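During the second half of the funding period, the structural biology subgroup turned its attention to how the target accommodates small molecules. The most pressing case was NDP, which had performed well in the primary screen but for which no bound structure existed. We therefore specified the complex as follows and requested a full 3D prediction, including the ligand pose.
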Amino acid sequence: QTPQTEILQTGPMMAMIERQLAAHFHVHRLDRDDAAALARAAPRIRAVATAAGGGLGVDRALIARLPALEIVANFGVGYDAVDVGAAAERGIVVTNTPGVLDDEVADLAVALLLATVRRLPQADRFLREGRWTSAAFPLTGSLRDRSIGIVGLGRIGRAIAGRLAAFGRPLAYHARNPVAGVPWRHYADLRQMARAVDILVVIVPGGAATRHLIDRPVLEALGPSGILINVARGSVVDEAALIRALGDGTIAAAGLDVFADEPDVPEALRRMDNVVLLPHVASATHFTRNAMGQLVVDNLLAWSQGRPPLTPVPETPWPAKA
Ligand code: NDP
């Protein structure tokens, strides 16, 4: 009998994931096991399962502690909390959960956009507070006189664009490369697009390359009727610049699902009336989280059975490049 494959789970994961991991692997827990036991097990650990968004990331130091590591299976399409460069250097494959969440995140992005433009949470609060009995809810901004620029036209960006096309408003997008076969105008220059549109919907990956992509000059270019929707990562927006821009009328409003230092959201944002704030819920439905969880498990099972992992990220192709 061969000993069970030993893996490391960095923090809590969905019950359906934990159940399946426990059935197939000997699971160590970074967040629970005592340090000495973990140090003893480290040389035998061949895989890591992580929900980086909800706990500890997989950094270079952790990877260095695991000399037998072959695969890191990340729950979520965004893997900015995994040091993919450190993994690639060692020929460790990193997998994520692309595709299965595109429609859910796109639905939420559109909902957040409408909620922000039409001030739906504010209207709900207005009714609950009994204010309707003495006045009508004030008129709001509209999608009817606004055009939209999508920042990032990948899997999710395209799903958002497809939905927004049905709203009959002009659409454009910014990405480093133009996307073939789409009818929308490509802007290589984000500031130029921000000047041309009234709404930015941000859906690029996080990480160093997109850090503070949405900065003060972009917000100034967006202008006083401008609306920012961020369903990407908090790191993509200069949050301090955004707070200033919302406070001094540089832009009109923002709808945010993600923040720089989750779950801490600056008091200044929470006090503002021209923002809609969500606790990072874009993919957070039973249906979609189950699909994401199954893909994490299936990646690990494929690898452990000697088959190619299903969804390796582009930086760590399978099999590893020599
Ligand atoms: P894709 O990799 O399919 O698409 C990424 C897009 O961003 C591409 O159009 C890419 O184009 C563009 N992009 C990448 N880097 C840059 C850059 N430096 N400047 C400008 N554009 C850039 O990713 P997905 O659509 O699957 O997911 C996007 C991100 O959404 C995830 O990485 C994740 O962080 C976030 N997300 C957030 C969720 C939430 O809960 N709020 C849920 C799911 C995802 P090009 O390479 O040509 O620049």
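Two results from this model are relevant to the next phase. Residues 77-78, 98, 101, 105, 152-157, 175-177, 203-206, 209-210, 231-233, 257-258, 280, 282-283 surround NDP (CB under 6 Å). The radius of gyration is 22 Å.
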